[in-house]
Amino acid sequence: MESLFANMKGSLTTIINNQEDAFWGEKISGRLINKGFRWCKSFRSVERGRKFKAGFAFSVVTRDINKNLLSFEDSIFEEADPKAVVSVILGGGAGTRLFPLTSRRAKPAVPIGGCYRLIDVPMSNCINSGIRKIFILTQFNSFSLNRHLARTYNFGNGVGFGDGFVEVLAATQTPGDEGKMWFQGTADAVRQFIWVFENQKNKNVEHILILSGDHLYRMDYMDFVQKHIDTNADITVSCVPMDDGRASDFGLMKIDETGRIIQFAEKPKGPALKAMQVDTSILGLSELEAANFRYMASMGVYVFKSDVLLKLLKSAYPSCNDFGSEIIPSAVRDHNVQVRAGRYFLNCNFSISKVHKFCCSLCT
Q1: CATH number, domain containing residue 154
Q2: Which of 47-51, 197-201, 214-218 has the weakest average pLDDT?
Q3: For residues 251 and 339, what is the distance between their CA atoms, to the nearest angstrom?
Q4: What is the pTM of this model?
Q5: How far, CA to CA in Å, does 219 sit from each of 37, 42, 243, 342?
Q6: DSSP helix/strand/coil, 233
Q7: Per the domain annotation, does 11 fall within a domain?
């Protein structure tokens, strides 16, 4: 039996679409591709104990249902709550390719577009998505970054956050042999502050968003989290289609017909790179675009169920230090890891000449 995965208001009307029974209504969120319906083979039943909002339909069965039964009053739909989401922004490494801009500052603190810094991109995305609980993990050359964050995002004369917060989690040494080590990777940075997420203050956090502080893109993170909830995913990875020339610089994925990741390779080269080619038309690309962009690349933007992330870091993979090369590829085997397609994305792992050209383009 087929079903349409889309969230619509409760009063719906039966229509005929290519001789298939369907529904017509105002779309709230979901997957409607090319102004049509995308039919999926699965139907996720409602789980007990989860929070739902009345007045929506999550999934509607088609074809062989009795039309006399097509009346929805208080349908149920789980809506993503920004208050249940914590964002963790990774402060970046040495950024050697941007030298001398990074000689005295971390890459997320590099100026862009005048008075802004690269860190302002994910910060702006968080604020405009309604996410008010933000941690920034810093380690390398962090003075300029810390100063910018303190001046721009504070309760006194910067951006107000109500009951939210913007807090810097700086790399530090703690008692014990392991406590004398700095961050060994993206996952290890989060692991070293795992006690923060277990704190009573964050007990209501259901989802943890992992972001990079040196990427350029625009995204509504709550749409991302909503997709994560709709598919009942343990982890969701945001991706973009990628061409042959840049594919080896990214983590690449293969997915099945439900959007679940079945293979993940971090920055493959040679034959391993060719083996990761996929039909990217599933992301909504035309045939011509799909022929030019044959890879599905990770943006390095992840959302985890909070309990899943804590389990992965503490017990399942305690020696894995990086999300892209270790945690995600390992979790694919025994967790529901879904993909969410993004649009425009720019990874700032480029040379200083390209930075100059990009900044000049902003002024024209």
Answers
A1: 3.90.550.10
A2: 47-51
A3: 13
A4: 0.73
A5: 23, 27, 21, 8
A6: coil
A7: no
Neighbouring C-alpha atoms within 13 Å toward the C-beta of 50: 17
Q: What is the pLDDT of residue 363?
A: 55
Cite the DSSP H helix spans in the chain: 120-128, 143-152, 186-192, 194-197, 221-230, 271-274, 287-292, 306-311, 328-331, 352-362
Quick one: tokens of 93? 């490494």
Segments forming the whole domain that contains residue 183: 82-240+298-363
Q: Which of 136, 154, 144, 156 is nearest to 117 (CA)?
A: 144
Contact indicator for 231, 336 with CB cutoff of 8 Å: yes
283 Ramachandran zone, left/alpha/beta (phi>0; psi -120 to 50): alpha
Sign, CA torsion 314/317/321/324: negative
The tens digit of pLDDT for each residue in 96-129 reads: 677 777 778 888 888 888 788 999 999 999 999 9
Identify whether 348 is part of a domain. yes
How many domains does one find in the chain?
1
Of the chain, the percentage scoring pLDDT greater than 70 comes to 67
Q: Please compute Rg for the chain using Cα positions.
A: 22
Residue 359 has pLDDT above 70, yes or no: no
Q: Where are the alpha helices (DSSP H) in 21-95?
A: none
| Residue that has been written with the tokens 């993170």 in this structure | 221
Q: What is the mean pLDDT of residues 279-296?
A: 88
Residue 342 falls inside a structural domain = yes
Residue 271 lies in a domain: no
Asked if 321 and 192 touch (Cβ cutoff 8 Å), the reply is no
Distance between CA atoms of 72 and 233, rounded to whole angstroms?
26
19: left (phi over 0), alpha (psi -120 to 50) or beta: left
Contacts 24+ apart (CB under 8 A), 261-268: 261/237, 261/328, 261/332, 261/337, 261/338, 261/339, 262/332, 263/332, 264/237, 264/298, 264/328, 264/329, 264/332, 264/337, 265/329, 266/322, 266/324, 266/325, 266/329, 267/325
